[in-house]
Every structure is written in structure tokens, then in C-alpha cells.
Amino acid sequence: MAPVSAALHLSPHPASPRIELSVSVLVSAEPRELVLHYRVRGDTAAVRWPEPQGGGMADGLWRHTCFEAFIGQPGQGAYREFNFSPSGQWADYAFSRTRVRDALRGPPNAPLIERRETAESVELVAVLDRRQLPPGPWQLGLSTVIEDQRGQVSHWALHHPRPLPDFHDPAGWTLRLPAD
């Protein structure tokens, strides 16, 4: 499958504090991997970026600046949640239905995470091994948590179906990728 041809723009939740940014994601489902390329543009100096930690699995990444992907199959209750921190840390959670944690089958494979900074943007590329994902077709929820320098958190997603931010709501998972 070729990459999604255009950048998918995430929007801040209406209840989130305002920060002058734009956030986009490019998605590419390759034969062996799923590649998610997040790009943050605008006043990136206003963002509290986590310090490099050298990788490894960690809980609670969503409390600070991180990038997220929710991956399930249309019509199924089970899904996976992935958190990618600009620090290099990551999280991988399995759910049997909305917000009901399930044990992962076997140890998770660490995603490849690369952070890139330019004069105009901060980017994070996350690469997931497709063997760790449910078979396609996929329903994806792509989101980002942005913490500003004052500690305020804003929630960004492709779609916000509720009055309060809730990335676990499948109604917000609007990207569909067909089976191979």
C-alpha cells in the first residue's frame, strides 16, 4: 500500500488551551511495517518537549507531549494503543474493548522512533512492526498530546466526537486502511 498521499491534519479539541501550532501525520502501510510521520509546525518553542531518555517502554507518556495511534479493526472491540514520546520512550497497550486493558500476547517489539528538528518544525517518525498489529483492514485514531511551557495540555486528533477529549472513543478513529 502506498502512503496516504496528503498530510492528515489533527485539530485541537475545543476544550483544549490554544497554542499556535499545526500538527499533521503522514501514514504509510508498508509490507512489513506501519510508518507514522508526525509533524508539528508553528511556535514549537512554546512546547515542553521531553528530554531524551534513550528509549524503552514507559507508562504515563500521555500526560506530557507525545504522539499516539489507536489501531483496531472496524466493527471489533479489541484495539491497540501506542504512545510515542519525543524522548524516545514508548508504550504499547492492548484492549479487549473500550478502556478494558488486556494482556499483550508476547512481549511487544520496540518501535523505531526518530525525532527530527528543523528551523520550522519538530517531527517524530514511529515505525511499527506489522506482525505486532491486528490483521487489516484497520481503523486508526491518530492523536497528539501537546504540553506547553506552562504545563497546560492540549489534545489534538483527526476527529473529536465528545465534549471532552477521549482518544479511546472509536467514533474518533476516522482513518481507514484496507487489508493488504
List the helices and strands and how they pair.
Layout lengths: L7 E5 L8 E9 L3 E10 L23 E7 L6 E6 L5 E8 L2 E3 L9 E6 L3 E9 L8 E10 L5 E5 L17 E3 L3
Structural features, described:
This is DOMON-like domain-containing protein. This protein has 180 residues and is mostly beta strands. Helix content is 0%, strand content 45%. The protein has one domain (8-177): Immunoglobulin-like (Sandwich), CATH 2.60.40. It has strands spanning 8-12, 21-29, 33-42, 66-72, 79-84, 90-97, 100-102, 112-117, 121-129, 138-147, 153-157, 175-177. Strands 1, 2, 3, 4, 5, 6, 7, 8, 9, 10, 11 and 12 form a 12-stranded antiparallel sheet that branches. The model has no long low-confidence stretch (mean pLDDT 93).
Give the strand tally: 12
Helicity, as a percent range = under 10%
Looking at how many chains there are and whether they match, the oligomeric state comes to single chain
* Integer tally of domains: 1
Text of the CATH class: Mainly Beta
What is the straight-line distance between the termini?
Answer: 7 Å
Count of runs of 4 or more consecutive helical residues = 0
Shape: globular
**SSE class:** mainly beta
Brief synopsis:
The chain is built from no helices and twelve strands. By secondary structure, it is mainly beta.
Please give a handful of descriptors for the protein shown:
180 residues; mainly beta; Immunoglobulin-like; globular; DOMON-like domain-containing protein
